[in-house]
């Protein structure tokens, strides 16, 4: 999805950083709340306020919320992020030690498309900017692993999360911890 399809920068709500995602509902280009860009807490808070102002009678709702779990709902920004990083690190872990020219091209194309298509436009814009600034290094599994870890740490830093020791990326995502806890 190209930037022009997402809407211009001027039509998007302005956020100062990725940390805004945990505190407020982020709007999509259509002006409606974006579940994939907002935390479940922020979205739930917004939804409860919206229900209070809605003119739809409560008895018109046919699905009981007690029969559905949060796993049956669209992912919020945190769940989407965790799943996405797991996928990206797993792809990296299975990347060849000595990739062919076409494998290098394919993984770079994939990551660039991933940044363009990511459901949370704030995250997508941020990842796309990271790729532009810190070009994808894909000459080997180890090189891609370090690049991916650095990209993930860039997001972690913005969100105030712990920084991961990139020397341990392969142990975390490919071989399992040396203490045998993954065996």
Automatic annotation (TrEMBL):
Region described as Disordered: spans on this chain? 1-32, 48-73
Ranges annotated as biased composition (Basic and acidic residues): 1-12
Q: Name one GO cellular component term.
A: mitochondrial intermembrane space
Which PROSITE patterns does UniProt cross-reference here?
ERV_ALR
Domain ERV/ALR sulfhydryl oxidase: start-end pairs: 73-173
Q: Which cofactor does it need?
A: FAD
Give residue spans, biased composition: Low complexity.
60-70
Composition bias, Polar residues: 13-25
Q: Which GO terms describe its molecular function?
A: flavin adenine dinucleotide binding; flavin-dependent sulfhydryl oxidase activity
Q: Which UniProt keywords apply?
A: Disulfide bond, FAD, Flavoprotein, Mitochondrion, Oxidoreductase
Subcellular location as annotated: Mitochondrion intermembrane space
**Which domain of life does the UniProt lineage start with?**
Eukaryota
Q: Quote the EC number.
A: 1.8.3.2
Q: Which reaction does it catalyse?
A: 2 R'C(R)SH + O2 = R'C(R)S-S(R)CR' + H2O2
Q: Which Pfam families match?
A: Evr1_Alr (PF04777)
Matching entries from PANTHER family are given as:
ALR/ERV (PTHR12645), FAD-LINKED SULFHYDRYL OXIDASE ALR (PTHR12645:SF0)
Q: What is this protein called?
A: Sulfhydryl oxidase
The organism is Golovinomyces cichoracearum
